[in-house]
Amino acid sequence: MESGMRLSGGQRALIRESWQRVSGSPVQHGLVLFTRLFDLDPDLLPLFQYNCKQFASPQECLSAPEFLDHIRKVMLVIDAAVSHLENLSCLEEYLCNLGKKHQAVGVKVESFSTVGESLLYMLEKCLGAAFSPEVQEAWSKLYNAVVKAMQRGWETLPEGD
Ligand code: HEM
């Protein structure tokens, strides 16, 4: 990933430390993140459809087993990023493909800013006073690097075009 995105040793330590407090219960924290996301942008709800069935409310979505699996998937991607802080570039291809998959299901790249806001909200709720401005900055940097890599999925044209 770009050198401008490089995290300092101190920032990496803050991320690892704070993630330890979240990663033990990924679904519980992921629910805080996605509850906030639907509060900020209810229009994202219809993008989650399983067996062509639309959810009638965020509450219905947030309790569906398929959606809880999506939460686990999101938390696993973040976990992978936290495990590869020294070498985020090895996730680049995976994240680009993940971006393509999200484009295919109708997600707009701009929505990832709202996801970022919701991620910071969840971290603040989980960490309380430990959510310092330094922790916030380190996480923003990491999240921006992940989104930048996913964003390439929107920029790449499908093969054959
Ligand atoms: C705007 C927010 C998002 C929306 C609307 C969204 C929507 C979706 C949908 C509809 C699917 C396919 C169905 C499913 O697997 O549940 C999916 C798959 C997935 N999403 Fe998301 N997603 C969002 C954010 C994220 C984020 C932030 C991450 C991780 C950083 C993520 C990681 C994944 C993964 C790993 C899959 C499975 C891809 C595969 O099948 O290989 N999603 N997402």
UniProtKB/TrEMBL annotation:
Reaction(s) catalysed by this chain's protein: Fe(III)-heme b-[protein] + nitric oxide + H2O = Fe(II)-heme b-[protein] + nitrite + 2 H(+)
GO cellular component, one term: mitochondrial matrix
UniProt key word Iron: yes
GO BP annotation list: cellular response to hypoxia
Keywords, in A-Z order: Cytoplasm, Heme, Iron, Metal-binding, Mitochondrion, Oxidoreductase, Oxygen transport, Transport
A GO term, aspect molecular function: metal ion binding
Primary residence: cytoplasm
SUPFAM superfamilies in UniProt: Globin-like (SSF46458)
Pfam family, one: Globin
Keyword check for Transferase: no
InterPro entries: Globin, Globin-like_OT, Globin-like_sf, Globin/Proto
Localization: Cytoplasm, Cytosol; Mitochondrion matrix
Top-rank lineage group of the source organism: Eukaryota
Residue ranges of every copy of the Globin domain listed in the record: 6-155
PANTHER family on file: BLR2807 PROTEIN, NEUROGLOBIN
Free-text function comment from the UniProt entry: Involved in oxygen transport from the lung to the various peripheral tissues.
Family named by the database record: Belongs to the globin family.
Name of this chain's protein: Neuroglobin
